[in-house]
Write a structure and sequence with these properties.
The complex is a heterodimer. By secondary structure, chain A is an all-alpha fold. Chain A is 80% helix and 0% strand. Chain A is globular. In chain B, helix 2 (38-52) runs antiparallel to helix 10. The chains are: A mainly alpha, B alpha/beta.
């Protein structure tokens, strides 16, 4: 059991820090309230009943889950390698991996479109029967591009925060590199990795710019919830757009709460 | 303790000052412009600035999206969408003070360079396996026109099966057809004039669609209607229309 933190009087510094915290909270609450105030029950019901919204919700859920799976499958091993080994040119690799995080999504979408378009990889991929453009597969690709880089970045920090000495000790006791990874490093870094996965998934769920260019804005085909919000704004259906946005936020908050609960139960803090 | 509160006060003041740094309205005109009209409008804004010293800030986007922005912000001076349908909607809500019809915003069938042999005429779009790009009918002017064209072509069902992507602006569609990511797309005639050789143009029978005209409207929300009307009149003048024509937008018949 952990010692409980001392109960102390609030210091001047605490008061000072509380002001910005309150401002941020007010802003977030204000944004949510402003969105909710625009919505009538009728519009929310319409949005819920419309097959377009349900399609968008379902598409958003499964594509972001697929993007997260791809992001973890690629990002986790990459993060482990980057955290545990040093090699020449690591600074360059690190910088390259940071670029997608600062890239405006539309630019990422444009680059992906050019790379997977007819002029470059599109033709050979089409010969193999793979068509990534303008399809749900393109949505997953756009989201996975973001999710993988987030996972590498967060995963690297999580692994770097664990003590490599514990793994070395396990090695001297006869554990294999795989054994050390599975039963020492992975459990130790679990909380950080979970946080990384949550952030990667959240970024994938909200992805819009890259999806717009790579997969298009085709209703009932590549229409994720963020795309539904965009299309309904473009149509002047602000109410439906807000309803879609709030559905997205509600689903995301629910999942975040569940994950936070899981992380709390496991980490014990 | 007093020092702490003083610091807190400074922090709040800093935040408030950042919030107050919003762009100053009134020093210049603000226009909402359909993305497809950007090249001529950009040129005209520059010409007008040199002539009169008045700056026009333009926000480009799909016409439908801009319509929503106007409704939400309640600000801005001018609206130049790809079709009179959008100023019409705004008029019904009392949002338009004055309107001039400027130019014809006609559709063409753009065919990717490698597909010119396969797609000789509009009816070839019904062939199985053709990849067609269209605009979203609600989001952009030529998306509406495209749907009308399909309805009247007599092969609407077969052609709709070949629609592989919908886009939000005409520029996005042009991007797809230029790289050959779609075989064909219904886009603005002006795109062909602006980027000759990047794709092949096939005509669309003119009785298949109601011609769309791009207008300029002075918004009721404008705080400087006279200055806005002066710019609108400049766009509608012979000099203005000549610039539009240079970018492939023929003047509307008067």
């Amino acid at each position: 059991m952990r010692p409980r933190p001392l109960r102390r009087r609030l210091t001047g510094l605490d008061c000072l820090a509380a002001v910005p915290l309150a401002l941020i909270l007010l802003l977030v609450a204000g944004v949510l309230a402003a969105l909710a105030l625009r919505l009538s029950w009728a519009e929310l019901l319409t949005a819920f009943r419309s097959p377009e919204t349900r399609f968008a919700l379902w598409l958003s859920l499964w594509t972001s889950a697929a993007a997260l799976a791809a992001g973890v499958a690629l990002g986790l091993p990459a993060a482990y390698l980057l955290a545990r080994r040093s090699f020449p040119g690591q600074a360059v690799v690190d910088t390259l991996l940071d670029i997608p995080m600062v890239m405006p999504p539309l630019v990422a979408g444009l680059g992906l479109l050019f790379l997977f378009g007819r002029r470059m990889l599109g033709e050979p991929l089409a010969a193999m029967g793979i068509d990534l453009l303008f399809s749900p597969a393109g949505v997953v690709l756009a989201q996975a591009f973001v999710a993988a880089t987030v996972m590498v970045r967060m995963g690297k920090a999580a692994f770097a925060a664990t003590d490599p000495g514990l793994g070395d000790a396990a090695r001297t006791l006869g554990a294999t590199p795989w054994g050390v990874f599975w039963s020492v490093d992975l459990p130790l870094a679990a909380r950080g990795l979970l946080a990384g996965a949550v952030l990667a998934w959240a970024r994938a769920l909200g992805e819009f710019g890259a999806t717009l260019l790579l997969a298009g804005a085709t209703r009932l085909r590549t229409e994720t919830l963020p795309m539904a919000v965009f299309l309904n704004i473009a149509t002047g259906e602000t109410g439906v757009a807000v309803a879609c946005a709030l559905i997205l936020l509600a689903v995301a908050s629910a999942l975040l709460l569940v994950l936070r609960g899981l992380g709390g139960a496991r980490g014990g803090a | 303790m007093r020092a702490t509160w003083r610091a807190a006060g400074l922090m709040i003041a800093a935040v408030l000052m950042t919030a107050a740094g919003a762009p100053a309205w009134g020093q210049e005109l603000y226009a909402y412009v359909g993305a497809g009209l950007r090249p001529p409008v950009d040129a005209l804004i520059e010409a007008y600035r040199q002539k009169t010293g008045v700056t026009v800030k333009a926000e480009y986007g799909g016409s439908g999206q801009l319509l929503t922005r106007i409704g939400e912000t309640g600000k801005g001076d001018l609206f130049i969408p790809g079709s009179t349908a959008y100023t019409g909607t705004l008029k019904e809500k009392g949002g338009v003070r004055e309107e001039w019809i400027l130019v014809l915003h006609g559709p063409v069938l753009a065919v990717a360079n490698g597909k010119a042999d396969a797609i000789q005429s509009f009816s070839d779009l019904a062939k199985p396996g053709v990849k067609l790009g269209l605009g979203d009918p609600a989001a952009m002017a030529l998306g509406r026109t495209a749907d009308e064209i399909l309805d009247r072509s007599g092969q609407g069902d077969a052609i709709r099966k070949n629609v592989t992507v919908r886009a939000a602006t005409v520029k996005q569609l042009a991007l797809y057809v230029i790289d050959g990511n779609v075989d064909a797309a219904i886009i603005g005639a002006a795109e062909a004039a602006q980027a000759p050789g990047t794709f092949v143009v096939r005509a669309i029978p003119t009785d298949w669609y109601q011609a769309e005209y791009a207008p300029v409207a002075v918004l009721s929300a404008s705080t400087q209607p006279d200055a806005a009307a002066a710019f609108a009149a400049f766009l509608a003048s012979d000099e203005g229309l000549a610039v539009f024509a240079r970018y492939g937008f023929p003047p509307a018949k008067r």
